[in-house]
Design goal:
about 10% strand; about 120 residues; about 45% helix; mainly alpha; single chain
Length: about 120
């Protein structure tokens, strides 16, 4: 039904963390088909873990299903969740992505490039 890109800013995916709150592979593909972006959360219910490795695992699955141009961070550092670290821990996510063999260009997209691209495309 969407005619513009869909953004799901704070979520997880069922491929590595199967629960009702997280998105199915079909939902990931449909969001990507709109040109949208999926922001992977940093909390246990989103990624079934409490460290950067769990976050990178969830990101990896989302990239495998939706494509690297459609995945981003969905940290939720507003205090509503218990994140495993604050913003100073983002290098841990970068390192975990490197350990999963993501290229620098792919990491750039995930760490903010995809959201910036979408905002530049869609905002007046």
């Amino acid at each position: 039904m969407a005619t513009r890109p869909v953004v799901v800013s704070h979520t997880g995916e069922r491929g590595t963390c199967d629960n009702r709150r997280n998105l199915s592979d079909e939902q990931l593909r449909k969001i990507a088909a709109t040109g949208g972006v999926i922001g992977i959360g940093f909390w246990d219910v989103a990624v079934c873990g409490s460290d950067a490795s769990a976050i990178a695992r969830a990101i990896g699955h989302a990239v495998q299903v939706a494509g690297v141009d459609h995945v981003a961070l969905g940290s939720d550092f507003d205090g509503a969740i218990n994140a495993p670290f604050d913003v100073t821990g983002l290098p841990l996510v970068t390192q975990a992505l490197q350990e999963r063999a993501f290229s620098d260009a792919e990491i750039d997209k995930i760490m903010g490039g995809n959201v910036m691209r979408l905002l530049h495309q869609m905002l007046p």
